[in-house]
Specification:
5 strands; 2 domains; five-stranded mixed β-sheet
């Protein structure tokens, strides 16, 4: 539980103690419980729009709503100050419970901080409209570190996280929401450019306080994004085919020009001999 000092150690410990009771009390797989907890968080952080999280808890953990809500409150307290408590408890659960579907090990805090410094570089942190991207974001630690460097001006930037793992994409979106970091998180294959899910994070003012709500893309929007990618690949393939034909034609033209030049030289030499 590195990265937590002093009283902060209590939050992961309290979380894991309660999480253990939920898992063992009903014989649930820890990976399934953790994934339902992430969906439960997204229910509240979406303003009640993403109802699947609440329904999953009610269906699989009857009478445990308050326990899940307490986990959520512990997470909120432990995540203050751009702390990645989710990543900490995730790794503890994956190693202690030998949980299936939870095989990620995240970049240490110090390395994430260095990566954030490199990503920002000489960027003016007082500027607006900048974009910071992490194409393998995990639980979002590097984005948290980058946002911290912008201070309150992070609300005027756009942070993007991408990860193939569905749990990681959810954790990153939750971390960004809890720390009021606007942007977008994709669950996607960044090499094949294939989208599986996406979460928008938008800033709102509630009284005099900032809020960052999560909104997951509907299936139709994901399908449209994948179709645009395929169309771009098709256009690229067609362009390359045309370019290949043009290069072939140019090569043939050069070859023919060279043949004619050699012929002219030969004819000119023969004419000289018989003059």
């Amino acid at each position: 539980m590195e990265g937590y000092i002093g009283s902060r150690n209590q939050y992961p410990q309290k979380f894991l103690s309660l999480f253990d009771k939920i898992c063992h009390g009903h014989g649930h797989q820890s990976s399934d419980v953790f994934n339902r907890f992430l969906d439960f968080c997204l229910y509240y952080l979406s303003g009640g729009i993403m109802k699947e999280g609440l329904e999953a808890v009610e269906n699989h953990h009857k009478g445990k709503h308050d326990a899940f809500l307490e986990l959520f409150n512990i997470l909120g307290d432990g995540s203050e100050g751009f702390q990645d408590m989710l990543g900490t408890v995730y790794q503890e659960i994956s190693s202690s419970y030998k949980a299936s579907k939870m095989g990620q090990f995240f970049t240490p805090d110090a390395v994430s901080d260095l990566m954030a410094q490199i990503a920002i570089g000489d960027l003016d942190v007082t500027a607006v409209g900048k974009s910071i991207n992490d194409p393998s974001c995990g639980s979002g630690m590097m984005l948290l570190k980058a946002a911290e460097k912008f201070g309150t001006n992070r609300h005027n930037q756009f942070f993007v996280g991408q990860d193939l793992d569905g749990m990681c994409a959810k954790m990153c979106a939750i971390n960004m929401s809890l720390n009021t970091i606007p942007g977008r998180v994709y669950q996607m294959d960044t090499l094949a450019m294939k989208y599986y899910a996406a979460y928008d994070l938008k800033m709102y003012m509630h009284g005099n306080q900032y809020m960052c709500l999560v909104n997951r893309w509907p299936k139709e929007q994901i399908d449209e994004a994948n179709q645009r990618v395929q169309a771009a690949y098709q256009r690229s393939a067609e362009t390359k085919a045309v370019e290949a034909e043009q290069e072939k034609a140019a090569a043939q033209a050069l070859k023919e020009a060279d043949r004619l030049r050699q012929k002219d030289l030969k004819n000119g030499f023969a004419a000289t001999l018989f003059d």
